[in-house]
C-alpha cells in the first residue's frame, strides 16, 4: 500500500480521460450551509496538484454562499465505465486572482459573456430575459477582450481525506482510504466494502 493518493488520483484521472466518453473531469461538489443543510451539484475540475483541487464559479451563487458559511466540502468523481470512484473531503479556500484570470481567459468567448449575463442561482422570470442580457453583454464587449467579472473565480479544496473505490465481482469491492497525517504525509488503510 503506502501509495501517494495524489499520484494515484493522477493515474486514475488519466485512465478516465482515455476511457470515459464525456467529461472525465466532472465531479459532484457537496456543500452545506451554516445550519448543516446539504446541497450537491456537478462542477468541472479545472486544476489539481499537491495544493488541492480547483473549480470555478460565480462567487455570488448559492454554492458560494454555502462555502462562505461553511468552508468544508466533499467531491465525488464517478467513472462508471471504469467501475471506479474517488471521494475527497477537505477545506475550501479562494483560488488566487491571477489563477482565476488565467483560467477565465482560456474559456470560450460565449462562456465568458455568460459569466457576465447570469445571476447564477437567482430566480429568472423567463429565458428571453437571460437571452436579452446575454445580447446586451455581447454588445458591451464587442471587439474587445472580455475581462473576468469581479464576482467570478476559483475555489481550491485542500484534501484531508481521499477514498478510492474499485468495483470487484460479487460486490466484494476494494476501498482504500488516505488521511492526511501531517503537511508532509498520508496514512493509508482499507475499509470493508
Structural class: alpha+beta
Fraction in beta strands? 35-45%
Distance between the termini: 17 Å
* Helical run tally: 5
- In percent, how helical is the residue content? 25-40%
Total strand segments: 9
CATH class: Mainly Beta
Task: Tell me the count of domains.
Answer: 1
Describe the structure.
The protein has 193 residues and is of the alpha+beta class. It has one domain: Electron Transport, Fmn-binding Protein, Chain A (Pnp Oxidase, Chain A, Roll), CATH 2.30.110. The protein has five helices and nine strands, in the order αββββαββαααβββ. The chain has helices at 5-19, 62-69, 97-106, 109-117, 127-140, and strands at residues 26-32, 38-44, 47-49, 52-58, 72-79, 84-94, 152-166, 174-180, 186-191. Strands 1, 2, 3, 4, 5, 6, 7, 8 and 9 form a nine-stranded antiparallel beta sheet that branches. The longest helix has 15 residues, at 5-19. The chain is elongated and about 55 Å long.
What distinguishing features does this structure have?
29% helix; 9-stranded antiparallel β-sheet; alpha+beta; single chain; 193 residues
Amino acid at each position: 500500500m503506502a501509495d501517494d493518493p495524489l499520484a494515484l488520483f493522477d493515474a486514475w484521472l488519466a485512465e478516465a480521460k482515455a476511457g470515459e466518453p464525456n467529461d472525465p473531469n466532472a465531479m459532484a461538489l457537496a456543500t452545506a450551509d451554516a445550519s448543516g443543510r446539504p446541497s450537491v451539484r456537478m462542477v468541472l475540475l479545472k486544476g489539481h496538484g499537491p495544493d488541492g483541487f480547483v473549480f470555478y464559479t460565480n462567487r455570488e451563487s448559492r454554492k458560494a454562499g454555502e462555502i462562505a458559511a461553511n468552508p468544508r466540502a466533499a467531491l465525488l468523481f464517478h467513472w462508471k465505465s471504469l467501475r471506479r470512484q474517488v471521494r475527497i473531503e477537505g477545506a475550501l479556500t479562494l483560488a488566487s486572482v491571477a489563477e482565476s484570470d488565467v483560467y477565465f481567459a482560456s474559456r470560450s468567448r460565449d462562456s465568458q459573456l455568460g459569466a457576465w449575463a447570469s445571476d447564477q442561482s437567482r430566480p429568472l422570470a423567463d429565458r428571453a430575459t437571460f437571452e436579452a442580457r446575454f445580447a446586451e453583454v455581447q454588445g458591451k464587449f464587442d471587439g474587445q477582450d472580455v475581462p473576468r467579472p469581479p464576482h467570478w473565480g476559483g475555489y481550491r479544496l485542500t484534501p484531508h481525506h481521499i477514498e478510492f473505490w474499485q468495483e470487484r465481482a460479487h460486490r466484494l469491492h476494494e476501498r482504500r482510504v488516505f488521511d492526511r497525517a501531517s503537511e508532509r504525509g498520508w496514512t493509508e488503510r482499507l475499509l470493508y466494502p
